[in-house]
């Protein structure tokens, strides 16, 4: 038996609770991991609260991120005692995840924990920081260099936004942050933003083409915000789209694409090939200063995760939440 969050759905309804879980409940996999830390992402909060159709089978242990040590394995990729890291691959949705003391996973989903990071630091980064790095890499591959102009980051107080600002600023970009919590502007400036905008400026219906401003953008909101970003990109600009916090619709036109030659780069972190994951984590190790983790990260125990998920859904959580599953 081990402790973890279990989501159940039956005639009694949808519920999540911290429980003692039988190891036999874990799905198939060739690696059994003793988990040390996980995270609480927006997707995890949707799963725990039931406010989004994240979980595909029940019962389910949520948690799309985890780090821990190999306890048992039949794979030749890892040995007992190895420190490993996981992001995505449907874990916490269709395969039991990281918000528990143990996880059984497929070895091809795992990468070694980068030597530059402690387990806690790796989870402070988690899917959010890893996704932010994938977005920055996409901008770089499309020729966006610091001299091109301003780079907009939406959802700036969230995990992806916070890390995107820190990464871009360290690389020398002029970062403008967009947020619905202007009272957190000082936090965003400390991360490296040069300017902070109220999200209302971008979140309403806009014109098909607007005045050119942004060289590039990293957007985790979608809907009208993404449409307005596209309308105001400079000629040849790029937006890396990785989320839908405002909505999954995209009320835009082809005009920015065919008149200004812009690029909309979709960023998926869930099924990303292992080679891309290793590249992103190595770049994170090369770029990030350790003080960033203290600015961005909040630590909780497993027993606090359900209440914190409700706070996250209410917009009361800033940055990243690391869960010590043994606390």
Summarize the structure.
The chain has about 325 residues and is of the alpha/beta class. Helices cover about 30% and strands about 30% of the residues.
Topology:
Elements: E1 2-10, E2 13-21, E3 31-39, H1 42-49, E4 65-73, E5 83-87, E6 102-105, E7 111-112, H2 119-141, E8 150-153, H3 159-170, E9 174-179, H4 185-191, E10 195-198, H5 200-203, E11 214-219, H6 223-231, E12 233-241, H7 255-259, E13 263-266, H8 274-287, H9 291-296, E14 297-301, H10 305-313, E15 320-324
Parallel strand pairs: 8-9, 8-11, 9-10, 11-12, 12-13, 14-15
Antiparallel strand pairs: 1-2, 3-4, 3-6, 3-15, 4-5, 5-7
Overview of this structure, please?
By secondary structure, the chain is an alpha/beta fold. It has 2 domains: 146 residues, Quinone Oxidoreductase, Chain A, domain 1 (Alpha-Beta Complex), CATH 3.90.180.10; 139 residues, NAD(P)-binding Rossmann-like Domain (Rossmann fold), CATH 3.40.50.720. Helix content is 30%, strand content 28%. Strands 3, 4, 5, 6, 7, 14 and 15 form a 7-stranded mixed sheet that branches. A 6-stranded parallel sheet has the order 10-9-8-11-12-13, sandwiched between helices. Helix 1 crosses helix 10 and helix 2 crosses helix 3. The radius of gyration is 20 Å and the shape is globular. The mean pLDDT is 95.
